[in-house]
Structures are given as structure tokens and as C-alpha cells.
Amino acid sequence: MLSSHGLLAALHITSNQDIQGFAGKISAAAGVVFSWTSYRVTRQLIRDCQPDVVHVHNFFPRLSPSVFYACRAEGIPTVLTLHNYRIVCPTAMLLHEGKVTERSLTEGPWWAFRQRVYRNSWAGTFFLCLMIWFHQRAGTWKHKVDRFIVLSEFGRERMKAAGIPAELMVVKPNFVDIPRQGDYPRAGLLFVGRLSAEKGIGVLLDAVAKLRGTASITERDVTILGGGPMANVVATAEVNALGPKSGSEVRQHMTTAVALVMPSIWYEGFPMVLVEAYACGLPIIASRIGALAELVEDGVTGLLSEPGNSDDLAAKMEWALNHPDEIRRMGEAARRRYESLYTPSRNLAQLTSIYEEAIANHREGPPRGD
Fold it and tell me: How much is the pTM?
């Protein structure tokens, strides 16, 4: 997007696929805390590219927070987009054993080591906890990053509770470029996403079973797109399970569904499927939890249900299927919400402003060292 609007952008992409063997995994794990290789490579890239600002989307596990020290050493301001809670929580999701937990915000990371939360690995979890602990103590997030982009006000409050300076955080949502779709006949409900417990698949299937028991819906009334660990469970349920689909196929389903169902039981960041649905004029039935409760306006762009409550979800699903005029108006409101907040032009203006703030903060701030 930046290049298409006359802003020169250079990408630096690393892959985790070449981490092989026991020795490779241990070496990579140790480098999670501070990778000197990444530090040297980043400094050289900066000298080669001479950027005005460095925008980091993910540094785990290969880059490590050393990239921010490299940028500081070269005098370049930095922006970090927080797509999850990795810098404060070893699970990255404020989730453990299928339940939301904010222990990392109140206790620090070391509770997670005892639980081996990272791939059930003592070593992997240890170095991840050490990374979080070390950079909190070293002041990395307070002194080496000029601006944090968070995806919602909810995420901003969680990060603030974890000690990230509020004045350095800016809320900027995700965006998509989807033109207004045609006015197609709509029928049935749609789920799009990973088929896993935290996404509320179990809650959704329970709600479907209850509606099927009262003959309120048919198998074709709920379409599920996606793959994941609960794919076999979904395949045996009384739903229209179609498996993973391409982006264009997903959008086709979005233009003909009545509503998108997002029954998550964890703190979603800012799901791309949400803004895609809004762009397609599709209202959302979402859990009243985390950022979803902020992003879906109850009764305006969709409906909110209590997280984990299949009875409430079933009631909202049945209402959506039985009130086409109201749901259509919600879909129109969803499209308007997209046009006002989630378009590329809106995003570009916000991002440019954030870069300018980061540059100004870097120039005006006190010396922070290498």
C-alpha cells in the first residue's frame, strides 16, 4: 500500500521454517531474548536502505527485540504493531487451557514456565519468559520503541495494564480493500476461521444442536469455512462444513449470508474476517468479550452474545434468521462503518500520521543510549 501511494518501502522478511534439529531449536530459543545476528543484520540493512522509520510487525522468534536496539544505535525511529500480547504474555493470547487469563499482566511471565505453555516445552517456554522478563526490566518497550500500534481500545488498555506507556500507543485498526458488493439474496449464517476451541466452535455447535432440536434451522442454515484441530468434530456436526477456502471464495459466501457468527471465548485482536464482513455488508453475531464487544455495535452493526453461552448464541442466531429487514439494515450500517473506518485511504492517513509522530518523538526525546 505504501509503495502504491508514492512512499518507498523496503521489506525485510524472515522465515522460521529453517529452524531444524535439536541444536537449531535450542539456538533459536536462546536468540529469542536477544539475537546478535539479527542486531548486526538490521544495522547493515539500515545503512543500505537509509529509512526514515522502521516498522516492525513481528520479531518472534528469529529477529528478537534486538532489532529495536539496532535501530536505536543507527538513530532510526521505530514503530511496532502489536498483533497479539506476545511482549507481555508467553501464550501471546492471554489464554491458558481454553480460558482467558490476565496473570501475565498482574504477575509477570514466570507462572507460564511452570505450565510449559509454549509447545509444552520447558526450554522454549523458559526462553520466552526470559525474553518478556528481560525486556520489561531493561526498559526496552519504554525507551527503544517510538510508537506502538494497537488494534483496539481494549488492546490498548490491556497493554497499559502491563506497563506499556499509554502515550506511546496509537489505536489503528486493520483494513481491507473491498469495493461495494452487489445486492444478492441472503440466506443462512456463516462462520469463517480456525476451527479451534478458543474460536468458540464448541459453543457454536452446541447452539446449532439446540436450534436443530427445535427444528428452527436446517443443516444448510449454518455454513462453516476453515480448518483446524476441531475439523473432525465439525465434519460430523449438522452444519454445512466446506473446509478452508480462498479469500475470493470467502467473500462470495459473505455476500450471500445473513450474518457472520464469531463466538470466540478469548480476547481477539482485530480479526481480518470482521472487517471483511463489514466491507461485504454482512452484520456480525459476536461474543461480548475483548475487542469484539468494541468493534461490533450491538443492534447497529450486529448482535452481541454472552461468551460461552450457547443458549444466548442460539437465540441471537434464530433472531437473525427470522428478522430479515432488521438484519438488512444492520448490514447496511456495517458497510457504512467499513467506509468510515477501515478503507485503505483511511489507513494510509493514519499510518502516515503515526510515522510522523514516531519521527518527532525520536528527535525530541531524551538520549536513550544504544
Answer: 0.90
